[in-house]
Every structure is written in structure tokens, then in C-alpha cells.
Recover the amino acids of this structure.
């Protein structure tokens, strides 16, 4: 029952113009990133090369995760038949459309890192699984049935390939809906989303075991998959919030208001707590049982060179959003939401840094031009690809069956 | 002087009721309250209803839960009879997190329910205070304090012009005691 379904003349066909300073800056960022990565890879110091690979893995994984979170967001809204988000779906759809490119990039990074022994050398080296070799490692040999090069690469291709296909089709169906109208696209999206969520839910933990946890192949944690999922989902939501706020600031998407931002803020707030919950569940069980094969992970991260960053990650990713977003008004303010979303993206960079570095460069940890410029390069690439995609289609799915509900969303 | 305490405009349509609110407000007639069978978007802003203070109560109860939960653990595990479990220190803070967290949630939830019940006079066995019974079924009610707004004829006209199907002059505030 519409109580005020009169007068709104939004132009749902308006398209984002990706030009000017935003485009120039994103291209400059890409060039800066490429230059830094080239310098790192061509360095004569093998530790520098390894550090570059570790940074490439960090940002490649982060980039893929954020795009996958875009696909997950779209699928979740479809399956729950959510109305509130219908007006802003084009942003996660643009992120989802970039997932195939992000996946290919990560696949190249992972493949090169594996073959050059710069990444995953804890389980991929000569003689690790050969009982007669002096390098024989009984633990790695015991895991070799799962953790071997062909299996690893096949899983990477299968997982990221399937996410990419679903992400691409989900976005495509919505773009088709703009032209054709009707409910065909929506119904198809609903079914595809349900299948996608099942596949995504069961495979992302295994994907993160492979991509990140196997960097320290002796250690294992069944919580690690959910911990990574939480990080992915929070950073994806933050990216959506940042794009939404900036696109609105540029004068587009007048139909999205503080009520929609409030809901995004609730999700960011809630899943930051979920992240802390999973992080703590993993930490406390290991701390309590105190078994050496499990504590090795935290032992490394409590070495002096990692410990301050280890605790800083908890403060940025849990304490900060808890205190800053708990208030209702905070979630409805562009400035505060933008600040927290950027803080969370930085926080999850640190989160991934703490996951990846102790298993790759170990005590040769550093924070210098290579960390900063690789991150800048990937942020530029993400901005360029997502904003280009966003500018190719109207900013609202005008035939989405719940668009009207989204316009009247009020909380 | 009549004994009328409240004038109730009863509408069959929420749009007409919203229209009625506009008309009354345009004539400087203060509205006591509105009663509707379902939530209506934008009505709080129109009536100037202040945001609920329930979240503040929730925060206080949550903080109380944190304090009590932690105090219980501290007293029983570390102070009164220090426990040695698995060689851990007798004040193992990480172990205390789950229980403290659960007690926080428990007290927060129970406290919110209790506050809500208290504030809305919803106690077991208590007759609910209702100004018009059909507001819980199919009618949208605007209630006007008849003592504060003395031009009853104008109110009647305005309500009927807006589409009220019935205007009641009640001498008692609540009908549900009857």
C-alpha cells in the first residue's frame, strides 16, 4: 500500500560519466603500480622478488575477493528477494562483472609464484614428498593427496572460473532486463543465485585454504575459511559503500538515500563483529589447547616484527567499526560511512598482510614503496575497471521488480 | 462545556488519514496520536514523534551484562578460589570472553523486552490500553485531545473533508477497560 507513491521523477536511465580527474588518477595509479612491481620483480635481491610476489598475491587476492563479494551481494539480494537494495544493485553488478579479469590476474600471480618458488615453497619444493630425499617432510607428504600442484591449479581454475561465470551471467541478466523488461531475467537470476550461493559457500573456504593457508602448509585451521569469508564480505561491502557515496557525491543516483546507506552500514557493522567473532574463535581455541602444531601460526605473528600490526588489525577491523558505527546517525552520514569504509579497506589490507607475510617473507617483513605502490596500482585497476563497467549501463535496473520498494525504503 | 476528552477520526484508508493529518496541522490543531493496524512510512516524521530511546536502554543493559558476567567469572575463577585449568593463568582473559559476551547479549535482550513491556504497559493479565479497538483491525485513527483543541466543529469538518468514515467523541481516554 503506497502512502506516497506520487511525484518522483528520477531518471533511471542516467549513466555514469567516467572521465576527468577520476579516470586520470586511476590510470596514473595503475602506471605507478606497474612500475613498482616491475622494479620489484627485476630486482637482483631475491628477497625483494619474493616480497613483490607476496604483495602481488595480497592485492590480487584482495581484488578478487572484493569483486567476488560484489557477486555474492547480488546473489544474496536475489535469493532473499530483497527490496531495499534494488536501487543500488548496479554497483555490485559492476564489481561482479570485473571478477573474471581479477580471477585471471590472481591465477597468473599464483601460477607464477608457484612455479618460481616465490610463493607456496613450504609445500612445493624438490623432494618434500620423497621419503628418500633429505628434504622429506612427513607432514607435507601426508597432505600431498590434496595439496599437490595439479590439484591446486585445477581447484583454482574451477573455483574462480565458476564464480566468474556466475558473476558475469548475473550482471548480464540484469543488463538484459533493462532492454527486455518482464520477469524472465529476474526469475533466472533467482535460480542462478541460489545455485551460486551453494557453490560459493562450500568452495570459498577451500579456496582460501589453497590460496592463503597453504603458504604455511604445516599449519591448518578449519576456521580459516570463514575468517577469510568474513574479511572478503566486509571489504566488499565497504567498497560498495565507498563507490555509492562517491557516485552520489558526483550527482548521480538521487534515488538512493540515507536509508539505503544505513542498511549498508548495518551490514558493515554486523560483519565486522562477525569477523572478530570468527577471528577470536580461531584464536581462542588455539590459545587454549596450546598444541605446538597449531600455535605455530600465532607464535610467528607474536614475534616482535609482527606483534604491533597483529593487534592493530583487531583495533581497526573490530574496535573502530564497533565504536564508530554503533550509533544510528553515524550509519546515515556520508562522511562517517566513507571514513569507516576506507578504514575497513585499509584494515583488511593489514589483515591479509598478517595472513600472508609470515608465510612468505617471514622475518624480512617490510613496509616500503613496494607495499604502498602495489596497493595503489591495484586500487587504480579496480577503480578503472569497475567505474568503466558502471559507466556502460544505466545506474538503475529500471525493470527490477523491487525497484519501487527500494525507492520507498525507510528505516 | 462538554465532557468529551478525545475526538477520534476513523479512516478506512491510510492515504486519507495522512491527508487528514496534513489538514489538521495546517489549521494548527495538535494531534494527540495516531493508531494504525500496520506501520506507515513517514508517519513518525509527520507527527514529529521522537526516535525511540530503546537503544539507550539496550546499551545500558548490555554494559550491565558485561560487568556482571565478568564479575561472576572473576569472583569464582580468580578471586574466591583461583582455578588452575590446564596450566593457564588464573585470570585467563580470552576464556572469559565467550561467557562475558553471552551474558551481555542475554541481559541486553531481556532488558530490552522488559523495558518495552514496561513502557507500553504490557504486563501479563493487564488489559491493554486501546483508544479505538478497530485500530487493531481495519481502521486508521487520528486522536485529538478535545480539551486542548476547543473548536470541535472545525475538527469534525476537517476530518470528514479528509475522508473520515466516522468521528467519535469519547468521554474516556481508553475503551478497553469496558
Amino acid at each position: 500500500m503506497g502512502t506516497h507513491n506520487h511525484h518522483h521523477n528520477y531518471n533511471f536511465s542516467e549513466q555514469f560519466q567516467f572521465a576527468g580527474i577520476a579516470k586520470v588518477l586511476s590510470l596514473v595509479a595503475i602506471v605507478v603500480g606497474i612500475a613498482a612491481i616491475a622494479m620489484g620483480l627485476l630486482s637482483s635481491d631475491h628477497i625483494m622478488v619474493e616480497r613483490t610476489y607476496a604483495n602481488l598475491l595480497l592485492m590480487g587476492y584482495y581484488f578478487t575477493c572484493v569483486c567476488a563479494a560484489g557477486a555474492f551481494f547480488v546473489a544474496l539480494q536475489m535469493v532473499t528477494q530483497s527490496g531495499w537494495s534494488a536501487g543500488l544493485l548496479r554497483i555490485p553488478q559492476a564489481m561482479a562483472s570485473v571478477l573474471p579479469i581479477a580471477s585471471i590476474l590472481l591465477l597468473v600471480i599464483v601460477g607464477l609464484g608457484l612455479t618460481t618458488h616465490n610463493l607456496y615453497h613450504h609445500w612445493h619444493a624438490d623432494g618434500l614428498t620423497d621419503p628418500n630425499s633429505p628434504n622429506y617432510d612427513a607432514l607435507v607428504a601426508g597432505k600431498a593427496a590434496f595439496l599437490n600442484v595439479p590439484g591446486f591449479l585445477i581447484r583454482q581454475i574451477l573455483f574462480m572460473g565458476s564464480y566468474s561465470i556466475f558473476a558475469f551471467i548475473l550482471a548480464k541478466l540484469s543488463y538484459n532486463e533493462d532492454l527486455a523488461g518482464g520477469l524472465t531475467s529476474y526469475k533466472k537470476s533467482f535460480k542462478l543465485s541460489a545455485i551460486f550461493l551453494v557453490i560459493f559457500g562450500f568452495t570459498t573456504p577451500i579456496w582460501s585454504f589453497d590460496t592463503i593457508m597453504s603458504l604455511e602448509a604445516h599449519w591448518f585451521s578449519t576456521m580459516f575459511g570463514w575468517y577469510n569469508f568474513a574479511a572478503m564480505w566486509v571489504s566488499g561491502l565497504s567498497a560498495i559503500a565507498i563507490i555509492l557515496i562517491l557516485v552520489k557525491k558526483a550527482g548521480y543516483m538521487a534515488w538512493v538515500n540515507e536509508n539505503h546507506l544505513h542498511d549498508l552500514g548495518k551490514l558493515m557493522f554486523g560483519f565486522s563483529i562477525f569477523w572478530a567473532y570468527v577471528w577470536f574463535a580461531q584464536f581462542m581455541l588455539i590459545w587454549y589447547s596450546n598444541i605446538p602444531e597449531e600455535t605455530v601460526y600465532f607464535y610467528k605473528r607474536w614475534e616482535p616484527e609482527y606483534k604491533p600490526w597483529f593487534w592493530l588489525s583487531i583495533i581497526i577491523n573490530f574496535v573502530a567499526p564497533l565504536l564508530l558505527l554503533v550509533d544510528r546517525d553515524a550509519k546515515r552520514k556520508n562522511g562517517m560511512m566513507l571514513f569507516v569504509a576506507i578504514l575497513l579497506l585499509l584494515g583488511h589490507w593489514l589483515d591479509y598482510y598478517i595472513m600472508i607475510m609470515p608465510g612468505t617473507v617471514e622475518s624480512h617483513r617490510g613496509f616500503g614503496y613496494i607495499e604502498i605502490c602495489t596497493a595503489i596500482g591495484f586500487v587504480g585497476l579496480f577503480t578503472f575497471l569497475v567505474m568503466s563497467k558502471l559507466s556502460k549501463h544505466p545506474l538503475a535496473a529500471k525493470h527490477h521488480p523491487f525497484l519501487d520498494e527500494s525507492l520507498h525504503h525507510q528505516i | 462545556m462538554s465532557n468529551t476528552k478525545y475526538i477520534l477520526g476513523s479512516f478506512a484508508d491510510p492515504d486519507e488519514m495522512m491527508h487528514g493529518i496534513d489538514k489538521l496541522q495546517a489549521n494548527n490543531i495538535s494531534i494527540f496520536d495516531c493508531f494504525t493496524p500496520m506501520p506507515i512510512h513517514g508517519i513518525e516524521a509527520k507527527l514529529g514523534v521522537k526516535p525511540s530511546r530503546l537503544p539507550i536502554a539496550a546499551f545500558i543493559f548490555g554494559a550491565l551484562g558485561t560487568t556482571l558476567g565478568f564479575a561472576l567469572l572473576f569472583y569464582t575463577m580468580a578471586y574466591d578460589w583461583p582455578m588452575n585449568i590446564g596450566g593457564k593463568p588464573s585470570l585467563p582473559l580470552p576464556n572469559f570472553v565467550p561467557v562475558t559476551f553471552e551474558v551481555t547479549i542475554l541481559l541486553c535482550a531481556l532488558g530490552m523486552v522488559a523495558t518495552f513491556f514496561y513502557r507500553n504497559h504490557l504486563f501479563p493479565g493487564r488489559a491493554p490500553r486501546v483508544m479505538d479497538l478497530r485500530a487493531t483491525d481495519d481502521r486508521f485513527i487520528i486522536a485529538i485531545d478535545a480539551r486542548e483543541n476547543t473548536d470541535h466543529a472545525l475538527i469534525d469538518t476537517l476530518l470528514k473533508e479528509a475522508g473520515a468514515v466516522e468521528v467519535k467523541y469519547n468521554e474516556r481516554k481508553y475503551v478497553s477497560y469496558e
User: Anything to note?
Assistant: The interface with chain A takes residues 14-15, 18, 38, 40-42, 51, 55, 86, 88, 94-95, 97-98 of chain B (CB under 8 Å). The helical segments of chain B are 14-26, 43-47, 54-79, 93-119, 152-162. The longest strand of chain B covers residues 6-11.
